Amino acid sequence: MREKATTLYIGPQHPGITGNMMVKVQVEGDTIVKARTEVGYLHRAFEKLQESRNWLQSFTLLCRFCVPEPDPVEESYARAVELLEGREVPERAKYIRVLMLELARMASYMLWYGGQNGSLGLYTMGQWSVGDRNYILDLFEELTGGRVYHMYIWPGGVRRDLPDGFADKVLRTMDYLEKRLKDYDDLMFENTIFQKRTQGVGIISKEKAVEWGVVGPVLRGCGIKSDIRIDDPYEVYDKLDFIVPTQEGGDIWARALVRRQEIRQSIRIIRQVIEKMPSGEFYNRIPNPHKWTLPKGDAYARTEATRGEVGMYIVSDGSTHPRRTHFRGAAYVHGITLLEDLLIGENVADISAIMNSLGTCPPEIER
Amino acid sequence: MMNDKNSQKIVDIIQNWARKHSIWVLAYGTGCGAIEIPPTMTSRYDAERLGVRGAATPRQADVLLITGYLTVKTMKRVIRVYEQMQDPKYVIGFGSCTINGGMYYDSYNTIKVLDKYLPVDVYINGCMPRPEAVLSGFAQLQKRIAEGRANGAQQYKDNLEWYRANQKKIIPNWIMPDYNW
Amino acid sequence: MSFFDLNGTLKPLTALKQFGKKPHTISYPKESKEAADRYRGLHFNDLDECIGCGNCSTICQNAAIDMIHIEGHDGKKGDSGLRPRVDNGRCCWCALCVEVCPTGSLSLTKDYLYVSEDPDSFLWTPGKDNPEGKEQISFFSTEETSLNVLDRVPMPELEGKERVKSFAEVVLGYNEAEARAEASRCISCGLCTEVCPEHMHIPEYINAIAAGNDADAVRIIYDNNPLPEMCGKVCTRRCEDVCAIASRGEALAIRWLKRYATETAVTADITREIVNPEIREANGKTVGIIGAGPSGLTAAYYLALRGYDVTIYESSAKAGGATMYGIPKYRLPIESLDKQIDYIKSIGVKINFNTKVGKDISFKEIYNKFDAVFMGVGFPDAWSLGVDGEDAKGSMQAFRYLYMINSGDKVDIGDKVIVVGGGNVAIDAARVSRRFGADVTILYRRRVEDMPADWEEIEGAEDEGVHIIPQGIPIKVHKDENGHVKSVEYLKAEMVPDPKGGRPKPVAIEGSNTIIEATAVMAAIGQMGDYSFLEKEFEDKIKIERGRFIVNEKQQTGDPKVFAGGDAVNRTADAISAIADGFRACKAIDEMLSA
Amino acid sequence: MEVVLMDILGAVVTFLVAFVVGMTYGGLSRKITARVQNRKGPPFYQNFIDAFKLGSKKSAIHHGVMHHFGPAFLMVSSVMTLMIVPVLTHNQWFPNLNFQGDLIFLLYVMTFGPLGMALGAGQTGNPNSAIGVTRGLSQMVGFEIPWVLALVALMIQYHTTSITGLMAAQAHSGTWLMFSSPFAFVAAVMAMFGMFRYSPFDIVGAPTELASGPISENGGKYLFVMMSSGSVFTFAKLTLYVDLFMGGADNLLILLIKTFALYLIPVLYGVTTPRYRTEQAVRWFWGWPSFFGLLAILQAVFF
Amino acid sequence: MKELKESIIKRIKANFADAVERNDFKDNRLDFSVKKETIPAILFYLKDEMGFVHLSDVNCVDWLEDGELEVVFIVWSPADKIKVFVRTRLDRDNAVMDNLDMIWRQMNTYERELREMFGVQFTGLEAPEEFILEDWQGPPPFRRDFDSAAYAEKTFWHRPGREDAQDVRESIADRDGEEIPDFAKKYSR
Question: Looking at the predicted complex, does its ipTM rise above 0.90?
């Protein structure tokens, strides 16, 4: 006999949801038979607002697209504008940008450590990693003047040069975090219950991953090696030595392992960047922002964020304001169609874990 | 023998002291400000020292944090959530967006002035307010509670019609239960 | 997964070792971590340094910054008197306002705490509300990081050696790309418009140029200046002194941009076509104007546009007054001036050349003939040096010299010229003399930096090989046996500070007599008016004091029908002031006659 | 008559002590958890403030009469457990209503609360509560097996169905039951994880899944009652374990030391583990703990 | 890279006669404009035959002056490391396209957004009517003729207290008596 399905509203006010969105699930017993995501709770119409702000003013909106990791968005915009305008970026700025992006990647993964484990009930991990994340945020604060909203990577380079002694501080923080990552491993990856909760849950097959437009660590967790830093290299990633980890399985566990390795690769990249950092200019100055026009045309630049490919598409009609900008977030493909499909047949207890493992970031979906 | 008024006063003081030191925050990240809540709650700043901890459902929560902008769609849920909370309840407005629209002042989808729709106890400056500022906000709220001025729920009840009219102006399709709790 | 994962059960328990470790917690508010050196906290504004340009308000994408009037800052030239007030209910602390602040007065501080129960208390006037913020400044802009473009697009010029060969124009003018680049530096604050005597619509036409719309720029310029090309070449451009960008970098080349815009209208006909002015129907009233200088032409042009029948009486053969005869042609080519005069004529202004009032026609006749009279008579005469031997041959007034050269006459100056004075006329005379192959020395009482001439002119003169002897006071002109200038004797001077705080005075050093050889001496120490044309009967009404007409703010003399302007009225004695006088007089005449 | 009065007074004292100790233990567990998590944590008396605040909430809505059953049944269940469990031996301030067969009765009483909770949660209409309750009941079915097995082993071994009987047996033999019947002790402790609903068995009220599950619709005074009953229940359970396996206690201090030592086990383990899903939890309880329970029975029967 | 680009252009041109290419980009990018009827076919072809398996982005540009909406698809080939822009123009008043979510599943989301924000209708799209907005009554908000600021001004309150703000340009003009002609005002800031 068919059980009567109960409708559960996971969100928008729900501790287990990643951000402000809703998943409406129908459950039979503990098994989900239908899922529907509802977004729009965070829609601020950035793209519309940017049309009434000039090319520089638009830049300040960017970091609000995805709050946990705003830098790839800034990076995408900056590179799209540079591409369209043909503006050169000084070598030092490129290195600083990579430093920023990797620090942001680490910060975002630290938050993910907390979120993923929080969704499974291991709150200690969250307390540790989110607490330790502050050390990275301190670096951001020192470099950019802001903890969360950096507004640092902008067209033409970066806003300020590295302060004195910053490199040492970065290295010291990296040493500390590397030590802490071992603790994290003991608590989390070695933990048999964590393994039991994540293995075999939320499986995405290789074929499906391609078909459904999966990107980033989720795709790499399906065993497909795909990383924009390697495939379509930007800034100075082609001069740096790092590996792109992949993992077979396509479940939460595989994705977690990919992230575990990536955060270590980030440390490796940051060390290289600090070592190779050239001296020189950090900023190729833009003209007076009030009268800064971009040539007619369009450009699309994309960046590998922790959630996958984020891209910025800009259209200029030759005026001081963008004709249209469009932000392509990774969560856009993960958070709706994929999530809806993935949840079917899963246990209702795993909704939050699956969402976290996909890196769903609602502000990125709705903008 | 003390008269009723005086004893009521003393009870109030004791109750307010307890309320002040036990602030349960509803886990609802309505906007981007939610990003500074985890650092505030976790080991670096550890808001639990001050008796601030998360509450999973509105029934158990004391404080509704409006972490930044509110879209019209969220507004509807926030009103619902606020009305489900138990008296006394407090609202903290986080950052610029709650005060005068912030950087979304010309967006068609976000509200600009929060206190038109909900009674707000404390506003925190910033975009986003960093954890220290958040904690200061809580401290200010504690002060307000201790002084017995944090009566937002009563204010809301008294001026329900005004609030309702404002809310209904921006929410065209009002299918919500009435405020009866 | 094994049947019983012992490792996986016990390994996590190692986390318990953290129990004995020191907590990471910062017990805020008991202890707190100081914000970073670059933290973007609340704003601070140095109210005295701020010039109220409002650029912060313009760049703010959140419309968070209002410019308001605050007590104690009433505004002066180069300061709008407004100061920014930040709405912290809008601000996102992006610090773009800091990056674009031309003076660097606006910055962000380490202080970020502001918690209030009153939502209306988030309006924040930086500097006024947090005077203590000065010690906490953390995020500020420097010249390196400023988003203002501080460097001017260099103006192409002829080489110094090339220049002295001919009277070709020295300044070549911007090409289109250069003009757009230069115009796009403007932040459109409009501080410049206040110091411009004529209050030209500077931000508007610069923005039109920046937007690539030169025709609009020309129209805007002609709105209140009928001789813009002249101004674009030789204006004293006080606007550039107060340019907001100039507080840190080089001022916008406002003059050159005006020049660029007006030069896009190549001929008078094209100018007419572009400006396409609205000419009102003739109203039958007539206005007589004495002197076709800038003030007279301005009054004439705008009166003609308003439907008046305007006649100008000019003593010389060409219109333009001092701009025609006082300015060398390498600065203001005659074609350029002709073009503008032609355009003014095409509007319907009649000019009677070679008609000197007082000689060819009496002032009384003009007075009676017209409904209103405007006098833009200028300063036709010059001061003499007042030293011994000044009557020698080869000793002359620089002003007269320029007049003669510009009229096409030849003047014998020999090969060693000494120019006495430090104003534009002195430099012009010196540079003109250089073009005739003479060795030129400028003798000036004060230091070079005290020279009233434009610094560009001084530099240009030096480039062309003009020697400047500062702090030299001529005391005697020696004559040779033919009565010709042989040499000039001067005393060296030292600068004595003025006890009252004015500018230092040169005081001659006794016994420091020096003699330099010369074949010609030119005095360029000032001009004066010639009011002999005024009949006695007008003396009561049209008052003259210290060599200038007394007028009210409408340029009206004691006789309500008679207006005056230009050098003969104002002390600044430059073309743009004259134009302003003419424009004001035009409005006043229009007001009077249409009443 | 006097005796009855004294008993009633004693019962009140027992309740108060249980409340205070339970609350303090809760606070200490928060403190300990905080320290493991690298932070300072709230003061140990934080739970009292929280409880008092909840009690002083001005409004507390309910969804019908049945809603009251949740908190009420919980409280009744806790108090009854407390009353049955002997707190201190030979102390008139802590009387207990022990009787022959109270151990079996206890098994029922302890399930009484969750069942009442189920009634209350059903009334609220919140699906989260409903699912939480079903999970709670499933999990209870899980941990009841080793728990019952352990108790049955004890009963068989010592031929008594009363707690005092077991305590007397320990006093008689001079060794604690945790040493003489180690398998029963292990099985019972493992079941205790489930009883306390600390990680990894906190799926019942998992905030990230069910928004605190059965109690999600309870605020204010209801939550206050639940919280107090939880504290009392904690104390009662710990005392029961001490009585059963650690020889009981003669005075309060020893009782506190023994109970706290026992209490630390689930708390510390809980800090380091995520939670099991319901079916995983049930499977876990039916695995090793039940195995130990069976061993205990074998030991009781054959040795 | 150059040969690769040319071979791609050749193949596309051979199969789709109406494709107009642009090949003046320095980076690994190609651009094709096609008629809207060709869109499903060319996307299928790119994905199945040429290895452009990854859909990077779909979005829409409102060319109000031309009365057209431009829909742009950006696809990426992981094998060839090249991205191709495919664009088509729709009539603004009758913006209808074929549903494409059988090619890439995530197109479904993009189509929902374009439908809601630009009013582009996809025939055969199966999805709930509302996506991001709730009870929206105005025109599709991302179209350029929708004025967000005016709507916000009309619908929401702004906090009063800032009325004493002055415009720098105007206050200076007031002080010195300058009269800015109307036609020039558009160049004021």
Answer: no
